[in-house]
Amino acid sequence: MLRRYIIAISVILTCSYCLAGDKAFGPTDLTYAVKPFVPDGWSISIKEQDVVLERHEEIEVYNALQLPSTDDQEIRRHMKKSKLTISLRIERRMSQQEYEDIVAQNKIAYKRARKDNPKQIFFRPDSQYWRDHPEYNYYFQDLPSFDLGHHSVVMISEPRSAVFVGRRVVRAGGGNYVLMFKDAKVEAECQGVVDSLGTAWRTYLRGVSR
After folding, report:
1. Mind giving me the DSSP string for 114-165?
2. Cα radius of gyration rounded to whole Å, the chain
3. The whole model's pTM is what?
4. pLDDT tens for residues 140-172?
5. Is 30 helix (H, G, I), strand (E, B) or coil?
6. Are 192 and 184 in contact (CB under 8 A)?
């Protein structure tokens, strides 16, 4: 317990000067680093402190958890069109060990919270839940996806779970993802952007079981 509090305190103290003392690398620099991996049909822009990649054409996806059926007609009925954006935000550098400690800490927190809410079959606590229940010591901020060596990069996609670091391109047995693409070529293109960044930069998923 003491170790988890030390981890949380160190994160807060370090974040208090996340980028204040290091302005040598900013969103413009990140844009130049990302640009070679952005395919045709995509735009790249800076919105506040985020570098945002957006696909011009909408993607078609459906929720695989809400619709476990494999019936084509049923899937088409629930298909939704959406703009896909990938936002990248520069943060202070987080070590791999710190990342793994937080992931382990969050797993313990989730198990405790799940045990305390046995009546909720689909228990999916959001950030507000963890804010309202600090006793679980859950790190509810977005964890970084990429390690640049001097900074970390947090990646957030909209819609969430459409693309993410470590997603398999080939789905064995239909896959187990929340959002499924209608078109495999579109999926490969969108996920390929993230995979390319994962090839250029170190990812935090290495050595971490998920």
Report:
1. HHH-TT-SS----HHHHHH-GGG----SPPPSEE-SSEEEEEEEESTTSS-T
2. 19
3. 0.77
4. 889 999 999 999 999 999 998 889 887 654 443
5. helix
6. no
